[in-house]
Amino acid sequence: MQGQTKTTLMSGMRPTGELHLGNYLGALENWVQLQNEYYCYFSIVDWHALTTAYKETDKLEERIFDMACDWLAAGLDPDKCAIFRQSHIKEIAELHLLFSMVIPLSWLERVPTYKDQLQQLKEKEINTYGFLGYPLLQAADILICQAEVIPVGEDQVPHIELTREVGRRFNHLYNTEVFNDPIAKLTENKVLPGLDNRKMSKSYNNYIRLTASPDEVIQKVRSMVTDPNRVRKNDPGNPDVCSAYAYHKIFNASNAVETEQSCKQGSIGCMDCKKALAIQLTELIQPIYEKKQELKNNPDYVYDVLADGAEKTRIVANETMEKVRKIMGI
């Protein structure tokens, strides 16, 4: 943004479904803090959603609106950051196209997640350029807004390194310094299991929505899997195999040690343990839930936020593309 002096940070999420507590811990909670330290661009990356779900676009618009509501309800402030929809910045697509002319195919094929995802999602028919090239599109997302810092988990570090290589190659080919060298900012890895102690997955429906109602939170907590060997209330339990205790450690940390000891001693039953957890989760989620209901009833405001964020982003995107076009003779 013109006149801003803070270091620039960029990140995004794919609108592939409703956000849950795992998404909050993995990114959104961190973003809410980072907006106070950096000038942030936060993108709802709808083009990225098409890389694995190009056949499933009927609910895309609804999911984009829902994600914007979740972000705002969780605490992102449009006065502190630019919140926008990726496809509203056409310059990103242009930069991605130009990058595709100069980046060797082998660079994309060696991205660690590429072959893994092809195997894991083979039923999706994603052997397309869009899927192969999504790290290049990600590089365009980052470099077009001159981002300097990218908050990521360890699994995304290779993508940021590719982004750095893309910028360096462009600068070298055209003897310029139009692109900077963004760095990965590793986020704390808070692993949240599913309610059934399996990996959290939308296909398993073993998660708690970020904007769940208080009644829904209680119902979800009640369904949590606890120690299967604990038959009676006073039996000693094993917290290490209990999904409820995994949530206590994160969301009720001040009482986690006491909860662990009480479980092992058999002095607290599983239902009482879950009741205490439900109280903690409701205190966290209820304000977000209530704020989202307000936002859903005021869609004009939400779309104005996205439009304003796109306008802010378009300023730097246009500046970047003017330089790129001139350098490439376009």
Automatic annotation (TrEMBL):
Molecular function (GO) terms for this protein are: ATP binding; tryptophan-tRNA ligase activity
What is an annotated GO biological process for this record, any one? tryptophanyl-tRNA aminoacylation
Spell out the reaction equation it catalyses. tRNA(Trp) + L-tryptophan + ATP = L-tryptophyl-tRNA(Trp) + AMP + diphosphate + H(+)
Q: Which UniProt keywords apply?
A: Aminoacyl-tRNA synthetase, ATP-binding, Ligase, Nucleotide-binding, Protein biosynthesis
Instruction: State a GO cellular component annotated for this protein.
Output: cytosol
**Family that this chain belongs to:** Belongs to the class-I aminoacyl-tRNA synthetase family.
Protein name listed in UniProt: Tryptophan--tRNA ligase
Species of origin reads: Desulfuribacillus alkaliarsenatis
